[in-house]
Amino acid sequence: MKLHNLKIPSEKVNFKQAVIQGIGQQRGLFFVDSFKPLNNIDEILSMNFVERSAHVIHHLIDAELSLEKVKEMVAAAFNFPVEIKQIEQNVACLELFHGQTLAFKDFGARFMAQCVKEFNDKEQVTILTATSGDTGAAVAHAFYGIQGINVKILYPKGKISNLQEKLFCTLGKNIETYSVEGDFDDCQRMVKAAFDSDEIRQKHNLTSANSINISRLLAQVCYYFEIASKYPKGNLVVSVPSGNFGNLTAGLIARQIGAPIKRFVAATNANDTVPRYLMENIWSPNKTIETASNAMDVSDPSNWPRIMSLFNNDLDKVKQVISATIKDDEQTFIAMEQLQIEGYIAEPHTAIAYAGLIESLQNDEEGVFISTAHPTKFIETVESVLKIKLELPDALEKVKELENLSVTVTNDTSKFNQMLLK
Ligand SMILES: *Cc1c(COP(=O)(O)O)cnc(C)c1O
Does residue 243's CB lie within 6 angstroms of at least one atom of ligand 1? Predict the structure, then answer.
């Protein structure tokens, strides 16, 4: 697989280097030079999820890993089902939340963990990362128990929900969690300071596991083929609840290599930089707004340059494939109520995808909206908007009583660095 840095095109890497380095010089994203279409689409679509996913990923990364190896990695990573629920006559929901941490981040994080495990040639590496919630849980579970990899996760104390904290701070073994007396920006600052220290980087063999890693995108391409396999007529529209736009990038890659998807809806909350860009042709991020769909509170989505690159930076071509919708909290809650009437309980991110799809879908099209999280991950909002009580799924019920193993630290970077050097 040949990739280049989108900011400095002369920086070329292969898949292994892109996975291990994560990000290029001047913080440029790595992206694939060009995509080859699959020449056996019908055969690919007829396979089961794991088998098909291995073929798709192997096609993308080319000869760097054998098909057998990729199969092994995919089987270990995707150890939970993808489900499709019919909601209305031509509207269905793709549920991606049946993994360990009940959000679609499990796909990317678990496959990335397999890649790091495969490519790591040091005896012991440390993944150091800051999180505001969902990603931390997915990363912790994905790397849990993997030999040779230590994980240190920083999060802002008291700023994530109790259940969310329990989900990744009770694991132990190779997962260490630090509850920082400060906010998310402090956590990021502390991670940066540790990476800036040669001494710490070398002592721990530090690597990052952030959301822009190319391996995550490849994993996410796979579930678009799963939907495509159910709607082979070529009139399929997929609505993607979007924040940092990794999920939509993966969908576009799937389409580019041959998944029969007609077009996409990029469904955002009030953080509407992309919809405004498609309407006005001007990229002008506003200040980030806090919404009920907080995993999408991103005003300068870092994956957008990858999407532009997929269309050779031709905005007119982008508009032929992507339409965008904006839903504020009030519209989000109305969409949750509409779904409830149809007998489906959805959390805010999912409801935004539904509302965007309904706004855009034509009579002769089949629509699928993506559900990125289980309703109980946003239990307070769901219970108060829909006036219901939710039962916790086993994954959350089990951890509720477990002891929180986090170490509390101050937001002092030099103290944290000293601790890492001890
Ligand atoms: C991360 C996340 C999103 C946004 O996905 P992007 O790939 O960043 O666009 C949507 N919903 C949930 C629940 C998330 O955790």
Answer: yes
